[in-house]
Amino acid sequence: MELVRSELARAARTAVVIAAVAFVAAPLQAHHSGAMFDYDKSVTLAGTVKQFQWTNPHCWIELSVGGDNGAEDWSVEMGAPLQLYQGGWKPGTLKPGDEIKVVVRPTRDGTTKAGLFVSATRADGSVLGKPQ
Amino acid sequence: MNARSIARICAAAALLAAAAVGAQKSEQDRVRVFASLPNWTGYWIADDGVENALGVSGRTENGAADYVKMKLAAPLPYTADFATKAAATRKNSAGDTGKECGFPFPFMMESPWVLQFLITPEETDVIVAGREIRHIYTDGRAHPSPDDVWPTPWGDSVGKWEGHVLAVDTIAVKSGTFPPMVSERARYTERIRMLSADRIEDELTVQDPVALTEPWKVTIPYQRVAGLDRMVHGDCNENDRNPVVGGKLTIAPAN
After folding, report:
1. Is residue A68 in some structural domain?
2. How far apart are alpha carbons B167 and B122 in whole angstroms?
């Protein structure tokens, strides 16, 4: 009987711990959940910068990417200006017409031409921003 | 001008002189107190393997999977009743379509944003890049009476300096969904101190007769943010390109 009571008490404690850990997921994201991005995949986009949005809550690179079916426009989500600034980026780091390669985590649905920024290099191979 | 008038003028002059001396002494006292306070200038980020690991993407390498490492997300010693209530609250929250727009206390002390300690003799302010601000009054005042205090996301904080340790007492924090999720009767005590030129720590104890079976303690370590020469603030509304469409977060085209 003592054993059963002990097991029940342990199960109750475990339930409380699980309940507590379950709070961790959604509300802690930077502005919004990152669940839309596939963290197991990387895509390298080579293209021309159309626009660099230095804005809160996210900065964005709008990239025209050449492909077999013609150019596609991709949106690359980045962090907030603070995080870019900390990473050595400035509003003038990219200008329309710049040729760059960007590695992204693509969206899970695959239909939206968008991804989460991982890294970027210029045409000469130099890395944009400070080494992370 | 008779003798009585002259006497009045002299008395008034003496009072003015005494007031000036008092003000000067008070100002000297303030300068002396200011000089005794520690220098925590600079920008700081929680050194928890999550918030200090955000790169230019603003996210950690493994996304939400990394958030279990957070100090404030550690399991709490919940009462059975509050565990049930908290689980229900979590179930009813927005989940993966939720967005944050500012952080409450104590989560603001371990948020994705850098923070700054602005120390004066009268108060120490914690200024977070997301524009959250805590006013910790160190002028000897007490909390407002229970009838005159109401819960806010940041609570009501008073503190005192024990040497170079800032001891803080906070009450009246509004309940929410950010960890540690506790009740509005929670009392938060902190001991914030500089360990070295590049390290600060905040020892936080949460006591809550409603939600917790025992005091819950956590230490949030901070590291100095190198190379940041100014505060760069956040703003969740400027260019929000992540609308919820059909119950899912999406990415809107650029304007």
Report:
1. yes
2. 14
